[in-house]
Amino acid sequence: MYLAAHMTLLAALFVALAGSAAGVLQLWQGRTSDLRWLERAQALVSLCLIGASCVLMHALVVSDFTLEYVMNYTERALPLFYRTTAFWAGQAGSLLFWALMVSVCGTAFLFTRTYRELSAETRTWFLVFFLVIMAFFGLLLSTWNDPFTMQRPAPADGHGLNPLLQNPGMIFHPPLLFLGYGGFVIPGCLALAQAMSDNREEMHWLDAARPFTLTGWLFLTAGIVLGGWWAYMELGWGGYWAWDPVENASLIPWLIGTAALHTGIVEQRRGKLHRTNIFLMALTTVSAFFATYLVRGNVVNSVHGYGEGNVGPYLLIFVLAFLAVIAFIALRARYDEDKELGGLETREGFIIMTVWLLIALCIVILTATLWPVLSRLWTDRPMGLDANFYNNVCLPLFTVLLALLLACPWLKWQGGLRDWKKFLITGAAFFGALVVFWKVGVTKALPLMSASLCAAILVSMAMTLAEKSTRAWRPALMASLVHISVALMALGISFSGPYKQEVEVELARGQMAQVGPYTVVLSNMYEGRGANFDYIEAELQVSKDGKVVSVLAPQRRLYDKWQRSAFSEATTYPSLGSEFYATLLGVSGDSAVLRMSANPLVNWLWIGGALMSIAPFIGLTRKRRPKTENASEAA
Predict the structure, then answer these.
(1) Rounded to an integer, what distance in angstroms lies between the CA atom of residue 457 and that of residue 448?
(2) CA-CA distance, 145 to 135, in Å (whole number)?
(3) Residue 544: its H or E element
(4) What is the C-alpha to C-alpha distance for residues 110 and 293, in angstroms, rounded to an integer?
(5) Is the previous residue joined to 153 through a cis bond, with omega within 30 degrees of 0?
(6) Residue 347 in contact with residue 412, Cβ under 8 Å?
(7) Do 558 and 226 form a contact (C-beta atoms < 8 A)?
(8) What is the pTM of this model?
(9) How far is 218 from 453, CA to CA, in rounded Å?
(10) Per-residue pLDDT tens over the stretch 261-276
(11) Do the bridges between strand 567-569 and strand 591-600 make them parallel or antiparallel, or are there none, so unpaired?
(12) Cβ(340)–Cβ(352) under 8 Å?
């Protein structure tokens, strides 16, 4: 069975290679009559990957330890829920899952009406680019990262799943990221295909790929936000973003994809930035592969990177080759680029500044992530950059983005204010919030500025939503809700980090500690046994304003297969104001060593992230409408 599964991966490789080669040959000969065979090749690749995935999932469910992958990431005591999520716990399995998501997205696109309305030449070029990507996946999976490597004799039990991965977030976070990466492959390949076919009579690639672009963006957004929540709840340190290389690896494609969405607005509304938009959309796909290179290539050390495998050089070669191809295609694309860009006083200028800031953030994050590698050029002791560097450089840039977001809705495309009264109200809201936050004790410059901007953005977006033209135009409604979610998330970040109150104390039974507005008493301690771990539990009585509000039980766990390390299970008392967070660090005699914190407004980060992930569904489709200046002003 496993040999057959391996053969299906080889079949996917050869079918994808043959399909892409046949497509290039057809285009070279100036014909597209055999397009249906390319479509069948893509469908066959998907069937091969689906078959291989079903075999691996079956092996995980039944705990067949003749597969090395099953042995390395599961054990018999592991609940079925986590045995299935082990599919993407390791390098080979996660690569297979990513390839499956990309292939399924590509096959789904073949059945859409918009695909059928494209010219035969554009569809051929699309399948050539797409099948090349699938061939690369097939090469990785059938050689250096084969998930069906067998061993004889089979061990009685497996090594078990890393306890940090035994969390409900494991079933959602990686799949959402891979769905985001897979969704962006469609517009990336389609942009390159239409640039090569140079067909001006068909539907523009931005419109044709719109559902996949937005779903790719929302899935990637949801995956990143959920990853932050997972880190907050599972790692026990009370934070949600540590600027870890793997975290940065997922953020870079998101920033580039967001920039591409904004250049797409300028192209659709103003007929400009055609080549830039092609390059950025394809670069989003390239950056996803580069993110994979960071995670799997042993380039930099990461808390949750993959240590095995030797795919790094091959991923880097693919990324560099793909980057050269998209740069060449974007430069040769035949578009009228003689129109001058709008000045800084126009809405167009503000959007372009937003794009430049997003790209600048990408460059900063990428450079800082690779700093241990780059610094080897001039020192024998390379060092990485810690979270302080990222916060000191990136957070001010994000604050400038908030300022642009505040002003942009009230500018005209040609320049000037489109509604000076509402712009004044927005400005008054900003200065009013500035005074209020200062009065309540927010005196740090960056949190004060960003929180005031967030409050003003909420007022600004509320006025925008109240406009009749916005309510009638779903994409603009979507954009307004996304911008509201940005403000809510930024508000949570502005307070939960700089104004977090944290203590680390040792408490005996009956002793009390004060954490921000909360009074905490250690009521008792217990020992127990879980499914595959032993634990110590501290019972905490949490009071606020003299009233008991919750009884929490943080744990310290020692897993059977991971005896060298103890793992903390944090607990929280949720609040829209200041959330209480507790972690049991250890036990000293009859006392518990606890890390406890009060995290102000942290849940607004998750609320904003959820809204940001849902809002794009509103704009997946839209009615065709004339491109008039009045319509443009509603954007």
Answers:
(1) 14
(2) 14
(3) strand 533-544
(4) 29
(5) yes
(6) yes
(7) no
(8) 0.93
(9) 24
(10) 999 999 988 889 999 9
(11) unpaired
(12) no
